[in-house]
Amino acid sequence: MEYIQISIDGILYGSSYSLIALGFSLVFGVMRRINLAYGSSLLLGVAIALWVENELNISIIFFIPIVLFFCSMSNLYVERFCFAPHNTKAGVVVSMISSFAIWMQLDEISSQLLPDRTHSFPSLQISTFEVGGLFFRGDQILNIFIAFFISAILFLAVYKTKYGIVLRAVANSADTAKLMGCNTKLVNSLTFILAGVLGGIAAFLVLSTESQVTPLFGFWCTVKGLVAMMIGGLGSLTGAFWGGLLLGLLEAHFSYHFGPVFREITTFSILLIVLIIRPGGLMGVNIYKDLKSRDERI
Amino acid sequence: MAGEKILEVEGLETSYDMIKALKGVSISALSGKLTCILGPNGAGKSTLLFTLAGILNSDQGKVIFAGEDITNQKTSDLVEKGLALVPENRLIFPHLTVKENLLAGAYARLAKEREKVEQDISAMYARFPVLKERSSQLGGTMSGGEQQMLAVARALMSKPKLLLMDEPSVGLAPMIVDEIFSIIKQLNAEGISIVLVEQNASKALEIGDYFYLLDQGKQIFGGSREAILKENIIKKAYLGESAG
Q1: Which residue in A8, A208, B35, B75 is a FRET match for B107, CA 20 to 30 A apart?
Q2: Cβ pair A280, A233 in contact under 8 A
Q3: What's the pTM value of the predicted model, to 2 decimals?
Q4: Tell me, what's the ipTM?
Q5: Which among A172, A178, A182 is the nearest to B95, CB-wise?
Q6: A178 to chain B: which residues are within 8 Å by CB?
Q7: Is residue A291 scored above 60 in pLDDT?
């Protein structure tokens, strides 16, 4: 029973990792770029939304769209200043360094907006319930349902809609998509906005469960999202989803058996092992064996 | 209208940084006709098509398409105006299905003409039955010839007034080349205006109406099939002056 309870807790926690990883994966799949400033842009979105909430004293119903709006706008800011100017093949390294620079910049702005070590965050106030001796936190159950629902919508949008076809065409070959008349710059910007919305949902779900936000939240998002994506499969949406759940599950078990300090050690140990054994991720292809897999994602 | 000039290029010059690839090329293409651009490797044929399609910007010169000056306009605008390029080596989307490749080809029309796009896909399936059979197969898993058919069908999905084709025979087996050229001939017979860049001069001579010969970025000949054969100029361009 204990194992089941820990597994449930791990999967519930992992669902938010999945959403963050999906945002990472979406950007990597379309642009072949890793956005190190992703977590920081989410933190900035949250910080601005909290500032607006304090100033206007709004209810949680209005607070949620405000979080999503500012998360997507700060992510768009990152795309405009960090990735759009370096969208050639030669710009891969420059854009990654730019994303590091912008990470520092956004964290600094957020720390000015959130100067204390912790700040309270609106909570959904759903009580815990028991089923057959297993305890379920109401807010976490809601989180996993939202995570599954949002992921399903994302998959449908990417694989079943015409926008999804254009998105995957750009991911396959941006140069060829341009020949079809496709506005690849617009697709890139929309992808960052979408990734911002996904990250904003994840940020809200995590922070409302914790009822607080710290200045380290951005770093936490970047690390967890990146690790979940790498475990699942670089640039693969399916991989990112399952990678997040697996990371949550393993973290929960390791921290239960070896102590909470092992949570972070587990995260990076799993990443190292996956990178050594299967660099393309568990659901990806070994990128060193098949360079063509660069085109295979999404 | 058949016989009218659909494309007019005057003194086009295009460079790759310091290297001038086109040195004042002037050509024209008639509506409903098949115009062939021939020349050896490095003659500037593909550069000419890239400039016409808006992928490269010209340094000098003018491009008039259907009576409108389209010099250095963006590719997306040119596609909407009715120019479509079938690129060298097909460049289909390997991880999209055949149907998704066709939908991507109709990008400029997706928002406005959704139902018509579906009808056009059915028309493409009727024209290229192999694409219907492989509708849900990933483009990258098809043979070279099938991919070439897909590339042509994808370009036709944008409803072009002028089809630009860059070396459609590259990398294909001789039998498949024959099939592709008969498809090009058929498309032209149906009234589609085509500008064909081809290194395989003998195949192009079988189907073309009008010919231009480029060499080292310059246009050295423009004329009918009879004229190009009479002057023996192709041999000179491909094999050097002594071949004449």
Answers
A1: B35
A2: yes
A3: 0.85
A4: 0.84
A5: A172
A6: 55, 75-76
A7: no
Tokens representing A281 are 């991720």
Q: Is A169 on the interface with B (CB under 8 A)?
A: yes
Average pLDDT over residues A71-88: 92
Q: What does the domain layout of chain B look like in residue ranges?
A: 1-82+160-244, 90-159
Residue B3, pLDDT > 60, answer yes
A-B C-beta contacts closer than 8 Å: 67
> Mean pLDDT across the stretch B110-126?
90
Q: Which CATH architecture has domain A2-124+136-295?
A: Orthogonal Bundle (1.10)
Here the tokens at position A75 are 């992510």
Distance from CA of A180 to the nearest CA of B (A): 5
CATH of B1-82+160-244, one of 3.30.70.360, 3.40.50.300, 3.30.360.10, 2.30.30.100: 3.40.50.300
